[in-house]
Design brief:
- The structure is a single chain.
- This protein is of the alpha/beta class.
- The protein folds into two domains: 234 residues, P-loop containing nucleotide triphosphate hydrolases (Rossmann fold, 3-Layer(aba) Sandwich), CATH 3.40.50.300; 236 residues, Rossmann fold.
- Helices cover 33% and strands 26% of the residues.
- It is built from 18 helices and 24 strands.
- Strands 6-9-10-3-11-12 form a six-stranded mixed β-sheet, sandwiched between helices. A six-stranded mixed β-sheet has the order 18-21-22-15-23-24, sandwiched between helices. A four-stranded antiparallel β-sheet has the order 2-1-4-5, with helices on one face.
- Strand 7 and strand 8 form a beta hairpin.
- It starts with a strand and ends in a 6-residue tail after the last helix.
Length: 495
């Protein structure tokens, strides 16, 4: 049995203690969940294990032997492999080349391709991964790439495997395939550390759960003895998990109507209405067409046929500029690439969608810009020291609030929220939901897409079920359980 442990680990930065006297151990044969809200120190601990940063004090040991890593390559050589959320495969190479990159078997001066594919095939078979070794990675889905990354890491026979948010971009059936693979890993002499924001996964895949809060170790608990409430309390102390308030009123007025919208290979014959103040969820697995539908309605992507009406007026040839003028706003699922300018300031990011309201001709009115930015900082409780700081300096939850605040400055009538809680912790999620509910009170309507189906039940008035590009059903959150909603999205029936 292998054991990874830390003794009195401290990591300080100027003005911040990222880790404060953390002593913890992880043994092989189990999946150890490592969780904590943003800023809890879990990313710092993972980076110390992976050799990306050095602790200020304390020590890391593997099987009782003290380890000192000069860089990630050194940590890897000493038995610690890390599979990050951002995958590192080369799309233009085959699965076999990616697994064996840098150590391809040679015959003289040439690559021995027969041996390359044979070795990779054996490694894939050993891990029960049914992917051809000669398949080009570009043709694989995200979850297949995730599996290839793990096979690649395991081919080095590491003593420790760290999985950083491995399911963040996966659909439910893909998650189950990944979990099956991770359970196979438990049979090997490898310490598995599993970092996730998705608390509901813990009881399905983890054996233990280690919680960090504000740089301190709160404790480690066996999952079979822990409840959801226990984990939340360890992460946050006392925090209330909200459900949709009863005072949110949906009016009869239709603010958005979509009729028979079609986009080839993405979605077809989509029709629905959205009423004033309503929060409408769209549930479906990845690939069901949810994001593509929102983008087409917003005018960011084309559609082939169908009609869109805002407040009874048909919108011809929609574009983001035209839809924004009509009162639509859209927060995209990829906030880092599509929702924010990472090198710009917090203030710039809060005002970019409302430039027409704060500019006179080609010139921005500075006092208006300051007013617009500060209003959203105050109303959304965005934690900033200075709005002139880079937006990349903020936590994920506060970055998401900036994305939302940017669009709220346009005074929208309808907001599309595409994966509003992706990559943020439980407390930040609750704050985002409170913002959506507060907009409902003001008569602003919302459409919310989330891969976390539990969130749709928690937040929305009504949920549309989307599967393979079709709206196949409609449910009210109070009438279904979460397992029924997953079943409907995957092609099953309501109980």
């Amino acid at each position: 049995m292998s054991v990874l442990e830390t003794r009195n680990i401290v990591k300080t930065y100027p003005g911040t203690i990222a880790l404060n006297d953390v002593s913890v151990s992880f043994e092989s044969g189990k999946v150890h969940a490592l969780i904590g809200k943003n800023g809890s120190g879990k990313s710092t601990l993972v980076k110390i294990f992976s050799g990306a940063i050095e602790p200020t004090r304390g020590e890391v040991l593997i099987d009782g032997v003290r380890m000192k890593f000069s860089d990630p390559r050194d940590a890897f050589a000493k038995g610690i492999a890390t599979v990050y959320q951002e995958l590192s495969l080369v799309p233009g190479l085959t699965v076999a080349e990616n697994i064996l990159i840098g150590r391809l078997p040679m015959r003289g001066r040439f690559v021995d391709w027969k041996k390359t594919f044979a070795i990779a095939g054996e490694l894939l078979k050993e891990m029960n991964v049914d992917i051809p070794p000669d398949e080009v990675v570009y043709n694989l889905s995200v979850w297949q790439c995730q599996m290839v990354e793990i096979v690649k890491a395991m081919s080095f026979r590491p003593k420790v495997l760290q999985l950083d948010e491995p399911t963040s971009a996966l659909a439910q059936h893909e998650i189950q395939a990944l979990f099956k693979m991770i359970r196979e890993l438990k049979k090997k002499d490898v310490v598995i550390i599993y970092v996730t924001h998705r608390l509901h996964e813990l009881w399905e895949i983890a054996d233990t759960c280690t919680v960090l809060r504000d740089g301190r170790l709160i404790g480690t608990v066996p999952m079979q003895e822990a409840t959801h409430k226990d984990i939340i309390k360890m992460m946050f102390g006392d925090v209330e998990i909200h459900t949709r308030p009863h005072d949110l009123k949906v009016e009869d007025e239709v603010v958005l109507e979509v009729k028979d919208l079609v986009r080839k290979d993405k979605f077809k014959n989509v029709s629905f209405q959205l009423k004033k103040g309503e929060i409408l969820g769209i549930a479906g697995m990845l690939g069901s067409g949810r994001t593509e539908l929102l983008k087409s309605i917003f005018g960011a992507d084309p559609f082939d046929s169908g009609e869109i009406y805002i407040n009874g007026q048909r919108i011809f040839s929609p574009s983001p500029v035209k839809m924004k003028k009509a009162g639509l706003a859209m927060t995209s699922e990829d906030r880092k690439r599509e929702g924010l300018n990472q090198i710009a300031s917090i203030k710039d990011n809060l005002c970019v969608a409302s430039l027409d309201l704060i500019a006179k001709g080609p010139f921005i009115k500075k006092h208006k810009e300051d007013e617009f930015a500060q209003r959203q900082v105050n109303e959304l409780n965005i934690k900033v020291s200075d709005v002139r700081d880079s937006v990349s300096s903020l936590s994920g939850g506060n970055q998401q609030k900036v994305v939302v605040g940017n669009w709220l400055n346009t005074n929208p009538k309808v907001i599309f929220f595409d994966e509003p809680s992706r990559g943020i912790d439980v407390k930040a999620k609750q704050q985002i939901f409170q913002i959506i509910w507060e907009q409902s009170r003001k008569g602003v309507s919302s459409i919310m897409v989330s891969s976390e189906l539990e969130e749709l039940l928690e937040v929305c008035h009504r949920i549309l079920i989307m599967r393979e590009g079709l709206i196949v059903g409609e449910i009210k959150p109070e009438e279904v359980k979460i397992e029924e909603l997953y079943s409907l999205c995957m092609g099953g029936e309501k109980n």
